[in-house]
Design brief:
Elements: E1 4-8, H1 20-25, H2 27-39, H3 44-49, H4 58-78, E2 85-88, H5 92-99, H6 105-121, E3 128-134, H7 138-146, E4 151-158, E5 161-167, H8 168-180, E6 185-188, H9 201-212, E7 223-224, E8 231-232, H10 238-245, H11 252-261, E9 266-270, H12 275-283, E10 288-292
């Protein structure tokens, strides 16, 4: 018997037209989009499906991407495909919690709209930066960043791809030292803030106040948290973890190893793009992973 996990991408996976084919072809998916439109202060359907430069602004991106991923999930569930466990990269963790039965879709969308605004506005533009370090040993990155004030690891994506974050000057200094130490590439990311950095702790504090007002139900299935890479079965821990997640490193490759150790052998990436499939090929190349980013991709579910 296969053990299935649903995986959800984070910010950066968004693209114009995402989910439009689900909206047009699936009444189940369409209902999720319409529900999101009722709780948001902008037309998320138009933003996802028509050209809109705001789609790449953090305060809009997060709600749009979560709406799309949950709309896709609704159709996948309607076809009888259910997960045994879930996980989501950064923003995607809200989808994972909703898919695990603990958060209503409209609450997930509302929360990430607030999360996106807080992350966008907490640190002035230009103060912080992020940099992807390619082809570098994790231990070397941790060693160099530990000796420079103002820079930390943001994302443990997969072996050979680690993202650092923090004060712009510190990130630049770390990147120079890493290149001198033999890093293949250090790529400054086009982002609006130093996400998953201690600089975002004030955003996490404000987000916690919103999380405490939100009704979380008991989990129907477990999910794996980015913050500690642990399997979460007790929803009482979730609010604090989501508040910490804004400023804590995303332990994605550790989370995937935890899922494999728990017996997950089939992973379904739900949302635009194939970023998580790419990571999995480097973390656990033996694992089966399929990516559902279009309505046409649903035929891949026959492989499960």
């Amino acid at each position: 018997m296969k053990k299935i996990a649903f995986l959800y991408p984070g910010q950066g996976a968004q693209k114009c037209g995402m989910g439009k084919d689900f909206y047009e072809s699936s009444e189940t998916s369409r209902k999720v989009y319409e529900l999101a439109n009722q709780v948001l202060d902008f037309d998320v359907i138009k933003m996802c499906h028509e050209e809109d430069e705001r789609l790449n602004l953090t305060e809009y991106t997060q709600a749009a991407l979560v709406t799309t991923s949950l709309a896709m999930t609704a159709e996948i569930n309607a076809r009888g495909i259910k997960a045994d466990m879930t996980a989501g990269l950064s923003l995607g963790e809200y989808c994972a919690i909703a898919a695990a039965g603990a958060l209503k879709a409209e609450d997930a969308v509302r929360l990430v709209r607030i999360r996106g605004q807080l992350m966008q506005n907490t640190v002035p533009v230009g103060v912080g930066a992020m940099c992807a370090c390619i082809g570098t040993e994790t231990e070397l990155i941790e060693e160099i960043t530990s000796k420079i004030d103002g820079v930390t690891v943001a994302n443990y994506n997969c072996p050979g791809q680690i993202v650092i974050t923090g004060v712009t000057e510190a990130v630049n200094q770390a990147a120079e030292q890493l290149k001198a130490a033999g890093a293949k590439r250090c790529i400054m990311l086009n982002v609006s803030g130093p996400f998953h950095s201690p600089l975002l702790e004030p955003a996490g504090d404000k987000l916690l106040a919103e999380l405490e007002k939100t009704d979380f139900k008991n989990l129907e299935i477990p999910y794996v948290t980015n913050v500690t890479a642990e399997v979460i079965q007790d929803i009482s821990k979730t609010r604090e973890l989501l508040a910490r997640q804004v400023s804590a490193p995303v332990k994605w490759m550790q989370s995937m190893s935890v899922m494999r150790a728990a017996g997950i052998d089939t992973f379904v990436e739900i949302g635009p793009g194939k970023t998580l499939a790419g990571f999995m090929k480097k973390i656990h190349p033996e694992a089966k992973i399929i990516s559902i980013g279009s309505y046409e991709d649903l035929k891949l579910l026959d492989e499960i």
